[in-house]
Amino acid sequence: MQHPDQKYIDALLENDKVVLDELYKRYSGKIKWMVLKNNGTEDDAADIFQEALMSIYHKAKFSGFELTCPFDAFIYMVCKKRWLNVLAKRKNHGVTNIEDQEYSLGEDSFKLAEDCHLQDERLALLKSKFAELGESCQELLNLSWGDKSMEEVAVILGFTYGYARKKKSECMAKLTKLIQTSPIFKTLKW
Amino acid sequence: MDIKLIERIEAYLQGDMTSEEVKTFEDQISFDSELREQLMLYKEIEFSMRQINSIQEKDLNETLSNLNKKYIKEVHLEVQKEDTEPKAIPRDKPNYFRLFSALAAIFIMILAAYFLLFRAADPQGLAEKYYAENLVELSQTMGSTEDLIQLGIAAYNQKDYQRAQVYFQEALVQDNKNSDAIKYSGLAYLSEKEYDNAIAAFQELASLPDLFSNPGLFYQAFTLMMRNESGDLERAKLILERVVDQNEEGSRQAQEWLGKL
Fold first, then answer.
1. Chain B residue closest to A35 (CA)?
2. Rounded to the nearest 10 degrees, what angle do helices B179-191 and B147-157 cross at?
């Protein structure tokens, strides 16, 4: 059953500044203190909170998102996971475990947080593999993912429409191959 | 994924297939899990990269960045601003400047005397006096289950408000309806001059039902007086009137302030 806090997900989708202000007012403090308490700074907290919200936005935009638990427990879980990843990457051996909290979460809610995490990881892999493509592929794909039609992309690049389509297919084939041959590909549940 | 397959997926997604080709493709998707996965991968790449490039996402990122500055980096920025903004010291026009300064000082003194003698008391001054007399040091609570609160109060009394906040937030994570934790968290925010966060905490406190004594409304008004921005005094007065009418905690002080404001 949809939770009343679903309004925060809708606010992200609609960039509703009033409700997002309320979201920050209510929830950013707890995340800030969780990060500060665990070797982070205010800038870290701001990054973590913003990235977590963007990750929820991506999930909601791509495959829909029905919140089944209070937003505070959910955002805490998402941020905590992200912050542990950051600490692990910084090889900060001082903190490897943030004390678990006593939020009561259903199984669905854990799955939602895990889905967000997987979506983040997939996006990170996608960006890193995109950066490995040659410049011409990057330029063509970027143009095609912008607000231009393939006809316009072809004109900008001085190609025929047919060649632009063929070239895009080639670039996408390269990109998907790079992604699929990554050692972590199968763990990300595409 | 080979190019032929990519071309088929693109033709399918862009509606370039005949109805017969669509049916064949969809039949194949229904039993070929590998093809289904390839289609999903292609769709996710296209969707994600379009999103990253979209104006909508950039706008949302901008909104969130602004809120980050307001709620998470607020204090930090104010400090930086104070440190980096050059002070205006006029050097080229000493005579006019001094004359103007002297006149302004006399005017301010007359104005101050007028306000002191004939006008309402300064709300910020009243609030600061109340803070100095009642909230610089908090009383320890009793009970062994409130360890986090006690640690928070100890840190607060040492003026280590950030550490105090950590304890209060920790207590709130364990029980998000802990009225003491909400109250003290609000006071710690207030002590750090994070007024928006303090008001949010006191609003949350005021909304808690079934408390024997709830200072949430009183502290909201008190915080508005401390902040003293445009419109804050009017809002504070309305809230103080509610405190008195409903005989909430702080009603005696509220009545006294209302008489002076």
1. B166
2. 20
Kindly state the tokens that stand for B50: 């379009």
Residues of A in contact with B173 (CB under 8 A): 30, 34, 76, 101-103
Residues A149 and A109 grouped into a single domain: no
Q: How far is A73 from chain B (nearest CA, A)?
A: 9
Q: Tell me, rounded to whole angstroms, the distance of Cα B229 from its chain centroid.
A: 15
Round to whole Å and give the CA distance between B186 and B255: 22
Q: Say if residue A117 is in the same domain as residue A137.
A: no
**Number of domains forming the structure of chain A:** 2
* Mean pLDDT (whole number) for B225-230: 89
Distances (CA, A) of A132 to A12, A137, A143, B192: 31, 10, 17, 47
Q: Count of CB atoms within 10 A of residue B127's CB?
A: 22
| Residue B176, min C-alpha distance to chain A (Å) | 9
Please tell me the distance from the alpha carbon of residue B34 to that of residue B172, in angstroms, as a whole number.
47
In a domain, A101, yes or no: yes
Tokens representing A122?
């997939």
Res. B86 pLDDT band, cuts 50 70 90: very low
Cα separation of A92 and A18, whole Å? Answer: 37
B108-118: pLDDT as tens digits: 777 766 655 55
Determine the structural domain holding residue A103 and report its residue range. Answer: 6-124
Q: In angstroms, what separates the C-alpha of A35 from chain B's closest C-alpha?
A: 10
Task: Find the range with the poorest average confidence among A170-174, B23-27, B242-246, B254-258.
Answer: B242-246
In this complex, which of A12, A33, A34 lies closest to B60 when CB atoms are compared? A12
Task: Give the C-alpha distances (Å, rounded to integers) separating B5 from A161, A162, A170.
Answer: 20, 17, 11
ipTM field: 0.81
The C-alpha of A91 sits at a distance from chain B's nearest C-alpha, in angstroms, of 23
In the listed set A124, A151, A169, which residue is the last one of a domain according to the structure? A124
Q: Are residues A99 and A143 in the same domain?
A: no
Contact across the interface for A62 and B173, Cβ inside 8 Å: no
A 14-53: CB under 8 A from B: 15, 17, 20-21, 24-26, 28-30, 32-34, 36-37, 42-43, 45-46, 49-50, 53
Domain shared by A75 and A151, yes or no: no
Q: Could you tell me if A43 and A87 lie in one domain? A: yes
